[in-house]
Design a protein that fits this description.
The complex is a heterodimer of chains A (395) and B (384). Chain A has 395 residues and is an alpha+beta fold. In chain A, 49% of the residues lie in helices and 19% in strands. Chain A is elongated. The two termini of chain A are 33 Å apart. Chain B has two domains: 173 residues, no CATH class; 176 residues, no CATH class. Classes of the chains: A alpha+beta (395), B alpha+beta (384). At the A-B interface, helix 2, strand 2, strand 3, helix 8 and strand 11 of A face helix 2, helix 9 and helix 10 of B.
Chain lengths: 395, 384
C-alpha cells in the first residue's frame, strides 16, 4: 500500500514539474477556466450586492402602512386614515406623548447618471416632522438636515456618487421652483441612500396632493407590536390599510431582481464551462500523449496504472484551481465594490456595490474544480492504460 | 487529392481533439447568438424609433402628469404634423404578476402616428366608435387568449374608479399586429376620454405627448419651442426624440450593453486561447510532415494556406453550428420572453457572426501557419 503511495507521490510530482514544458497549453487552459469562473462570480457579486443593499434596508421595529394592495409609488392615504392610525396601539410615543409616525410622499424625479449621461428615475421622499425619530441609523455626513417648510432637500450618499448635480450647495429645479441641496446623508448602505429627502408638506403643495400622503412609517414599541397595529387597521372599516414590517417590505423587493441576475449568471457560466472543458480535455490529452513514453517506461519499471491516473488528475485539478482563483482574483480586483445602479422595486434607481464573498469564491472554485475533474478524468484514464510497448515505439 | 480534401483530412486526423475544439467554438457562438437576440429585443424600441417622432414629458419625470390643454398648444407650433397623447394605466390582468403595459390614448391621432401598428380597418373603426373598447397587442392577445369581442376586466395598481373599484371592464375591439417582426406589440390601449371620466383623481391631466414633425430637420427648433413655451409654469416639459427617450428608458436597467459585451468578450477570448492552442499543438506534431510536403514542392505560401484553411474550417463548422442553434432558439425566445421585447435574430447578428467566424479562423491559424511557412526543411527533418 505504502509502495503505491510512494509511486503516486513520485508520478504526481513528475507531472506537476513537467507543466513548464507545456507552459502555453497549460496557461491557455488556466486562463480559459479563469474567464469562466470570472463571468460566474461577476454575476453572483452583482446579485449579492443588490440583495445586501435592499434586504439590509428596513428595520423590524418600523411599520410601513400603505393602501391595500398598493406599493409605495401608487399608494394613497387620506388625511382621515392617517389621523385614525395615530390611535393605533403598539406605536411608540415621543417624549411629549406624540405617536412616532411619519406621513410620507414618494415621488419620482429625474437624475442624470454619471456613467451613461442618461436620465434615470430617482425617488424623492417627503418626510414627516418626526421622521428622524422613526427611522434610526441615519446620519448627516455633510451639510445639514433640511428645514421644515422650505425648498431644501438632503440627498443620499449613493445619489451624489452616481448622479450629477446633487452635490451639497447645488440648486435643482422642480416644477419651476428652485430647491437647494443642503446636506448629504448616510443610512448604513441601505436603499435610503439612493433617495432624496424633503419636507412632506412642501412636496404636497408642489405636487398638488392636498392633504394626502402615500405611506406612513411608524416606530413600533417592539417588533412584536406589529400584530396589534395590523389588527387595529383591519378592525376599523374607515381605515382598511396594509401594515407590514419595514424589514419584510424590503426583503420582498430584493428577491425578484437578485434572482434574475443569478438565473442569468449560472446558465451563462455553465455554457462557458462546456467550452472550457473542451479546452481542458485537449490540454490534458496532449499532456498524456507527450508523456506516453515516460508513462510506459514507468510501467515497465513496475509502476501501476493508478499512479499515472492520479498524476494526470492532479495536474488537471491544479490547473483548474489556479484558473478558478485567478478568475476570482480578477473579479475582486476589477469589480468588487464597483458601484452599479438598476431599477428596484418602486421603478426607481437602487444604487448598490458589487460584493464578492468567501462563499461566492467557493462556488466559483467548485465550478473550476468540476471542469478540472471531468477534463482530467478521461485523459487520466488513458494514461492509466498506456501499454508498456508504447515505451519502445518510435516517438 | 485536392487542396480542400487535404485540409479536411488533416482536420479530422485527430477526431476527438477536433470534435472538442469545434464544440468549444460552437458554445461561444451559441452564447453570442442568444445574447445578441436578447439585445435586439431590448433595443428594438431604440432601433425602430421614428426619426420624426418626439416625446414630450413632464420635466420632473415622465411619471408626472401635465394638463391636457398642452395638446392643443403644442399642435399650434409650426412644423408639427400631428400630436397624440397617452397616460399610464399601470394595469394587470387578474393578478399583479400578469402585468400589462397599458395606457389610455387619444385613439385616432395615436394610431395615425404609430403607423407600425397594424389594425384591420374594420377593427380600427370599431375601436374608434366604442368608448369602452380596447386594442390588444398581438403578444398580449396570444398570452391570454384574448379575441375580438371578449369582455376583459383590467385592474390598475395606480388608479381607482370613482365608485372605488380598481377594475375597468373593456371590450376587445381589435388586435394590433406588428408591421415587421421587431415591432413590439406587448401592450393594451384604450380611450382616454372613458378613462378620464371614470377615474377618481387626476382630472384633466395626461401622461405624455407624442409629436410627429413634418420635417426631421425642424426637430431641434420644435423641441426648443415646446419647452420654452411651458418654462416657468407648474408643469414644465422636456421634449426629446423618441430614440433618445427610449434609450434612456432602457439604460435605467443598467448598462446591459456592457454586460453583454463583457460576457461575449470573455467567451471569445476563451475560445481564441483554446483553438489557438490546439492549432499550435497540431502544427508542432506535424513538423516532419510539413517538411516533407515542402521537400516535394509545396511552396511556403501553400503551406500557410493549408494551415489557415484548417483553422478557418474549424471556425466555420463550430461557428455555423452555434449560430444555427441560436437562430433556432431565437424563435423560442420570441415566444417565452415577449414581455421583455421582440426577440429577433437579425440579419445584422448573422453578418456579425460571419465576421467573427472569419476573424477567429484567421487569428487562431496565423501564428502556426506562419511558423509552418518559415519552417526550415533541413532543421525540421534533422531535429528528429
Amino acid at each position: 500500500m505504502s509502495r503505491t503511495l510512494t509511486q503516486i507521490m513520485a508520478v504526481t510530482s513528475m507531472n506537476l514539474r513537467s507543466i513548464p514544458q507545456r507552459i502555453w497549453t497549460s496557461l491557455s487552459t488556466v486562463i480559459a477556466i479563469g474567464f469562466v469562473t470570472g463571468v460566474l462570480l461577476a454575476f453572483l457579486a452583482l446579485a449579492n450586492g443588490f440583495a445586501a443593499t435592499v434586504s439590509g434596508t428596513g428595520s423590524p421595529d418600523v411599520a410601513v402602512i400603505l393602501r391595500k394592495g398598493g406599493d409605495e409609488l401608487s399608494s394613497v392615504l387620506t388625511r382621515e386614515q392617517t389621523l385614525l392610525m395615530q390611535e393605533a396601539p403598539g406605536i411608540a410615543k415621543s417624549a411629549d406623548g406624540k405617536p412616532l409616525m411619519s406621513p410620507e410622499l414618494y415621488v419620482v424625479i429625474d437624475g442624470i447618471k454619471k456613467s451613461s449621461q442618461t436620465k434615470a428615475n430617482l425617488p424623492l421622499r417627503g418626510l414627516g416632522t418626526l421622521a428622524d425619530q422613526v427611522r434610526k441609523g441615519v446620519r448627516i455626513s455633510s451639510g445639514r438636515m433640511f428645514r421644515t417648510g422650505t425648498n431644501e432637500l438632503v440627498v443620499g450618499r449613493s445619489v451624489s456618487k452616481q448622479f450629477e448635480g446633487f452635490e451639497v450647495g447645488k440648486q435643482i429645479r422642480l416644477a419651476s421652483q428652485n430647491w437647494t441641496v443642503v446636506g448629504e446623508f448616510e443610512a448604513n448602505g441601505s436603499v435610503f441612500e439612493s433617495e432624496l429627502w424633503a419636507d412632506v408638506a412642501v412636496l404636497q403643495g408642489l405636487y398638488q396632493r392636498g392633504s394626502t400622503v402615500q405611506s406612513v412609517r411608524a416606530r413600533l414599541q417592539s417588533p412584536d407590536s406589529l400584530q396589534k397595529v395590523k389588527d387595529f387597521a383591519e378592525a376599523d372599516p374607515r381605515i382598511k390599510l396594509d401594515v407590514k414590517s419595514e424589514q419584510a417590505f424590503y426583503a420582498a423587493q430584493s428577491k425578484g431582481m437578485s434572482d434574475v441576475i443569478q438565473y442569468l449568471g449560472w446558465p451563462l457560466a455553465i455554457a462557458m464551462s462546456f467550452g472550457a472543458l473542451a479546452g481542458a480535455l485537449n490540454t490534458m490529452y496532449a499532456s498524456v500523449d507527450a508523456r506516453m513514453r515516460e508513462i510506459a517506461t514507468l510501467r515497465a519499471l513496475g509502476f501501476g496504472g493508478l499512479p499515472a491516473f492520479v498524476g494526470t488528475m492532479a495536474e488537471s485539478l491544479l490547473l483548474s484551481v489556479v484558473g478558478g482563483l485567478l478568475g476570482a482574483l480578477g473579479v475582486y480586483l476589477f469589480f468588487d465594490g464597483l458601484s452599479a445602479a438598476t431599477l428596484g422595486g418602486n421603478f426607481t434607481q437602487v444604487v448598490f456595490s458589487m460584493k464578492l464573498s468567501g462563499d461566492l469564491v467557493l462556488q466559483g472554485v467548485i465550478l473550476a474544480l468540476v471542469i478540472g475533474f471531468v477534463g482530467g478524468f478521461f485523459p487520466a484514464w488513458r494514461a492509466a492504460r498506456v501499454p508498456i510497448l508504447a515505451a519502445f515505439r518510435a516517438g | 487529392m485536392t487542396f480542400l480534401q487535404l485540409i479536411r483530412k488533416n482536420l479530422f486526423r485527430k477526431k476527438l481533439r477536433t470534435a472538442l475544439t469545434i464544440f468549444a467554438i460552437f458554445i461561444a457562438f451559441l452564447i453570442f447568438g442568444v445574447l445578441a437576440t436578447f439585445q435586439n429585443g431590448m433595443n428594438a424600441g431604440v432601433d425602430l424609433a421614428g426619426a420624426d417622432r418626439l416625446i414630450v414629458t413632464n420635466k420632473i419625470n415622465f411619471t408626472q402628469p401635465m394638463p391636457i390643454a398642452y395638446v392643443s398648444r403644442v399642435a399650434a407650433v409650426p412644423g408639427i404634423a400631428r400630436v397624440a397623447h397617452a397616460s399610464w394605466f399601470g394595469g394587470y390582468y387578474q393578478e399583479p404578476k400578469n402585468f400589462l403595459v397599458s395606457f389610455a390614448i387619444d385613439p385616432a391621432s395615436y394610431l395615425d402616428i404609430y403607423s407600425e401598428y397594424v389594425v384591420a380597418p374594420a377593427q380600427r373603426e370599431a375601436f374608434l366608435r366604442d368608448r369602452g373598447g380596447v386594442l390588444v397587442g398581438k403578444v398580449v392577445a396570444d398570452t391570454y387568449g384574448f379575441k375580438v369581442g371578449d369582455r376583459i376586466p383590467l385592474k390598475s395598481s395606480i388608479w381607482r374608479q370613482k365608485n372605488g373599484s380598481d377594475t375597468w371592464d373593456f371590450t376587445v375591439s381589435g388586435i394590433v399586429t406588428p408591421r415587421e417582426a421587431r415591432v413590439d406589440t406587448n401592450f393594451v390601449m384604450f380611450h382616454y376620454e372613458y378613462f378620464k371620466e371614470t377615474r377618481d383623481v387626476g382630472g384633466d391631466t395626461i401622461g405624455w405627448m407624442i409629436v410627429k414633425t413634418a420635417n426631421t430637420k425642424d426637430n431641434e427648433r420644435i423641441i426648443k419651442t415646446i419647452d420654452t413655451q411651458f418654462a416657468n409654469s407648474p408643469f414644465e416639459t422636456e421634449t426629446k426624440t423618441e430614440q433618445a427617450f427610449n434609450k434612456a428608458f432602457i439604460e435605467q436597467m443598467g448598462d446591459l450593453g456592457f454586460i453583454i459585451l463583457a460576457v461575449v468578450g470573455s467567451a471569445f477570448v476563451t475560445i481564441l486561447l483554446i483553438v489557438g492552442n490546439t492549432m499550435m499543438l497540431t502544427v508542432r506534431e506535424r513538423t516532419n510532415e510539413i517538411a516533407v510536403l515542402k521537400t516535394i514542392g509545396f511552396t511556403g505560401e501553400r503551406i500557410f494556406a493549408l494551415i489557415i484553411g484548417e483553422s478557418l474550417l474549424l471556425a466555420v463548422i463550430g461557428g455555423l453550428l452555434g449560430v444555427g442553434l441560436a437562430w433556432l432558439i431565437s424563435f423560442g425566445m420570441a415566444q417565452a420572453m415577449s414581455s421583455f421585447g421582440p426577440m429577433t435574430f437579425s440579419l445584422n447578428t448573422a453578418l456579425t457572426s460571419f465576421v467573427l467566424i472569419a476573424t477567429l479562423g484567421v487569428l487562431t491559424g496565423f501564428v502556426p501557419a506562419y511558423r509552418a511557412m518559415k519552417l526550415d526543411v533541413v532543421t525540421a527533418l534533422g531535429r528528429k
